[in-house]
């Protein structure tokens, strides 16, 4: 996945907002909450996303994937794909989708309704 494909994909999410910040990084938010970032690692695109507990532990052992600089150092479960040998494009899209779902699930019901974001799917 390249930066243009990343931005095109992130734009498909309901109420997704794009801003450029942090040294020209493409930052994607929903309801004001961060769900994905494309910045640079050694001059190459690097993709950062929120991960669940298990995914955080498992995926960081993959080549090209590491705990996200800054975010993970503060105890948050965020990962960064920084090299092409990391996740496939499909896996990266799945991780970004899950990141969006986790972030929007944390929004109040009122805020989700206001933004047109569906209620989180219950696993029960």
Summary of the model, kept short:
The chain is 31% helix and 28% strand. With 124 residues, the protein is α+β, with helices and mostly antiparallel strands.
Helix-strand layout with pairing:
Blueprint: H1 3-10, E1 16-21, E2 25-30, E3 33-41, E4 44-50, H2 53-59, E5 65-67, E6 78-81, H3 89-105, H4 109-115
Antiparallel strand pairs: 1-2, 2-3, 3-4, 4-6, 5-6
How would the global form be characterised?
globular
Class computed from helices, strands and strand pairing: alpha+beta
> Measured on Cα atoms, how large is the radius of gyration?
14 Å
Q: State the helical fraction.
A: 25-40%
List the strand order in the largest sheet.
1-2-3-4-6-5
| Unreliable stretches | none
Please, could you describe this protein's structure?
This protein is α+β, with helices and mostly antiparallel strands and 124 residues long. 31% of the residues lie in helices and 28% in strands. The protein contains 4 helices and 6 strands, in the order αββββαββαα. It has a 6-stranded antiparallel β-sheet with strand order 1-2-3-4-6-5. A hairpin with a 2-residue loop joins β2 (25-30) and β3 (33-41). The protein is globular.
């Amino acid at each position: 996945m390249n930066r243009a494909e990343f931005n095109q994909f992130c734009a498909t999410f309901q109420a997704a907002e794009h801003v450029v910040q942090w040294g020209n990084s493409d930052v994607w938010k929903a309801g004001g909450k961060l769900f994905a970032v494309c910045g640079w690692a050694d001059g190459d695109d690097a993709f950062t996303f929120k991960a669940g507990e298990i995914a955080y532990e498992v995926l960081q052992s993959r080549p090209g994937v590491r705990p996200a600089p800054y975010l993970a150092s503060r105890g948050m479960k965020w990962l960064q794909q920084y090299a092409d040998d990391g996740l496939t494009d499909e896996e990266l899209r799945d991780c970004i989708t899950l990141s969006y779902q986790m972030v929007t699930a944390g929004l109040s019901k009122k805020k989700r309704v206001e933004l047109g974001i569906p209620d989180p799917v219950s696993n029960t």
